[in-house]
Amino acid sequence: MPSVRNTIAGRHAEPTGAERFRAINPANLDDVIADYAFSSPADIDRAVAAARHAFPVWRGRTAAQRAEILMQAGAILQSRSAELGVLMTREMGKPLAEAVAEIGYAGRVLQFYASEAQRPIGEVLASGRPDVHYYTQREPIGAVGLITPWNFPFSIACWKIGPALITGNTAVWKPAPHHPFCSQALLDCLLRAGMPEGVVNLVHGGAETGAAIVGHAGLPAISFTGSTPVGQAIFRSVSHRLGRAQCEMGGKNGLYVHRSADLSRAVTLAVEGGFRSAGQKCTATSRVLVDRAILSDFTEMLVARVAELKLGDPSHAATFIGPVVDDRQFAKVRQHIEAAMAHGHRPAIGGLDKPIPGGYFIAPTIFTGVTPDEPLAQEEIFGPVVAVLPVDGLTEAIAVLNGTPYGLSSTIVTNDLVAAQRFARDIECGVVNVNLPTAGVEMHAPFGGWKGSGLGQPEQGLKIMEFYTHWRSIAMNFSS
Ligand code: NAD
Questions:
Q1: Is the dihedral of CA 296, 301, 306, 307 positive or negative?
Q2: For the chain, which residues score pLDDT lower than 50?
Q3: Which of 225, 453, 460 to probe ligand 1 with, by most ligand atoms within 8 A of CB?
Q4: Fewest CB within 10 A of the end CB: N or C in the chain?
């Protein structure tokens, strides 16, 4: 078994913490990927010192030089997508085609941010004072802390690393512990592309390691993606020490099937959003709201389509649903199903039967007749479980969709322009889709949740440049 190593100041060394972690292939529990130590506070101190030491050097490079490295790293990542897809599937169970696609996307994200080197970093202002040249300029913040979850091992890291680096910052990156070799592979792509030592420092670890980063006075900004309770605690903690935080968090995303919808399209969108990645996307469809007039036809079609989905080995091309990521997620999703059944629900399909032994497999599960205030309709499940809620029209659908603490992504399926426009105007979330799945993003659009789904600047797109930079206004008197 290869050893898991941090990369600090370009040097690879095993983490030195007392806590250990066993990374296991969720599709085959006999396949132990790594058994390794988390990073200690001393490791974090070293990583922060390395990032701070590298900052003046990296900031001193021209944007074009920084871009060249990101461009190259993106190309290396793309060229390795087939090989690294296999690794990702083994480490966290994402079906192979989805894993390969994610890595290609991650490479393009690095290149998208590289292209920012050619765009303005400030503006010229008219001064009210004579003979004063007045202009603004973005400046990097320094060494930043990046904390990422397991469900997108490459792309989420890249949409933090890309904007952080192109603007001249350096970073300490702590990924989720499930996929240590994916994380190392991403760092390797950056180093092979010519990234100087210490510009991104990889530290393996869990919650305590993350907390040491969050509390570190040497990191003026923290960008986090993960669950809502952790993100909210991080935002409070970083704000308390007067740092800058940006948190993308959980969701309880809903797809509303309007009476005008093409039902076949609605079923496809519900299946894509609800069950791809075994429902483990922050934007996964967890609630499907359906107008009563079409409820029985839609539900029958949805259950029939879900019955055809192939659950199994995520490395097989025919597999639609692989395992959930780990024992914790397996127990949590099953508890949600148990609680729904204790509440009197019987799944229309799926449920608690263990469909495949030897892995964390959960059958795609649908509950019908769910009411808006039940835990099934309120809490993030993060697994292949969809709740169907009957509603009477658009107004009720919007009220129900807005009636959770989350606000990440919503979809309306409709052929009615008025309904689509009203939906887009009144829904309380950061991502709105019409006749598209709740899941799915494009890198040049801002991506961020409202309410309990996001705090601070949205990610992706160019809005995030605000997070990674300070503004400086420069007034230059050239009168003689
Ligand atoms: P998590 O909150 O448990 O962990 C996320 C990361 O934070 C991991 O690296 C983890 O080790 C670290 N961490 C955990 N506790 C910490 C603490 N106290 N201090 C600092 N760091 C800590 O989330 P997860 O289970 O890894 O990921 C699933 C969650 O992420 C879901 O809620 C999902 O909706 C959310 N998510 C959100 C987005 C988004 O962009 N909105 C994207 C992907 C995932």
A1: positive
A2: none
A3: 225
A4: C
